[in-house]
Specification:
It is built from eight helices and two strands; from the N terminus they run αααααααββα. By secondary structure, the chain is mainly α. It has one domain. Strands 1-2 form a two-stranded antiparallel sheet. Helix 2 runs antiparallel to helix 3, helix 3 runs antiparallel to helix 7 and helix 5 runs antiparallel to helix 6. The chain is flat, with a radius of gyration of 36 Å.
Length: 268
């Protein structure tokens, strides 16, 4: 019987595993270093972070305003088609068609009011967010010696007591001694009014333009008023599409007026 023995002259298994682990760790360290070199440097700048959020809020506000215009145009196309069809028929369409046409017009008007109201809500929501973020941005830049520009916090009429207090605290900063932030009520109204007064319009034309501009009509609220007006328009027409005891609802409404005071006439 021959017994042979094999002599192993290498390192013990534990030592081999340790060296392999060290090599793997070194390789992973190189990969991690190369990956981090490809990433942009991270800067701990509070003002930069607030600026990015401020830009996002501004874009969302602009998006809501643009969507309001497009959606309102969509509903106005439907309204125009319905009114055009009604005028073209000159009242000769079947009574059921006129009845359903008016109900459709009222329904579209209600949807138009809801759309405009929802758009106005979200626009206001983002405007409030922009104003609040702007205050944080101004606070983070209060020690900046360069000029700071305000957009949504420049008129105190649109600020609450706490927001005015924060602007007053910012103005106490040494960097703001010669560059005070505005917070007076009616600041924007004064700028717009002075610009109109310097205009070259004739005196009567200037008066009309001044009235129209200084009324500060809300562009985003006008679609709401248009929707209400169209709803009343379709409602009055609908009241004249059927009769109760021989008279339409619209004619019964005008019974309350004395004879000869108010009477509907056709175009000649």
């Amino acid at each position: 019987m021959v017994v042979s023995a094999v002599h192993y002259s290498g390192d013990p298994p534990q030592e081999g595993f340790k060296r392999a682990g060290d090599a793997m760790g070194w390789f992973l360290g190189i990969v991690k270093q190369k990956f981090q070199e490809q990433l942009p440097p991270v800067v701990d700048d509070t003002a930069s972070g607030i600026k990015r959020v401020y830009e996002l809020a501004l874009k969302q506000r602009e998006f809501e305003i643009a969507q309001l215009t497009q959606r309102n145009n969509f509903f106005m196309i439907f309204q125009g088609v319905l009114i055009g069809g009604l005028v073209q028929s000159q009242g000769t369409a079947a009574p059921l068609i006129n009845f359903l046409l008016c109900i459709t017009g009222m329904a579209i008007s209600i949807f138009q009011i809801g759309m405009a109201g929802g758009a106005k809500y979200w626009q206001t929501r983002w405007e409030v967010a922009v104003k609040n973020i702007e205050l944080y941005l101004l606070e983070s830049m209060k020690d900046n010696p360069h000029q700071v520009i305000q957009l949504f916090t420049v008129d105190g009429k649109h600020l609450g007591p706490e927001e005015k207090r924060r602007i007053a605290e910012i103005n106490k900063s040494p960097a703001r001694i010669n560059d005070q932030l505005a917070s007076k009520d009616g600041y924007i109204d004064k700028i717009v009014g002075d610009d109109i007064d310097r205009s070259e319009y004739m005196w009567f034309n200037r008066g009309m333009i001044s009235w129209a501009v200084k009324k500060k009509w809300s562009v985003s609220k006008i679609p709401l008023w248009v929707g209400f007006f169209l709803f009343v328009f379709w409602l009055l027409l609908w009241m004249n599409t059927f009769s109760i005891v021989g008279e339409t609802l619209l004619s019964r409404l005008f019974i309350w007026f004395p004879s000869g005071i108010f009477e509907l006439k056709s175009f000649k």
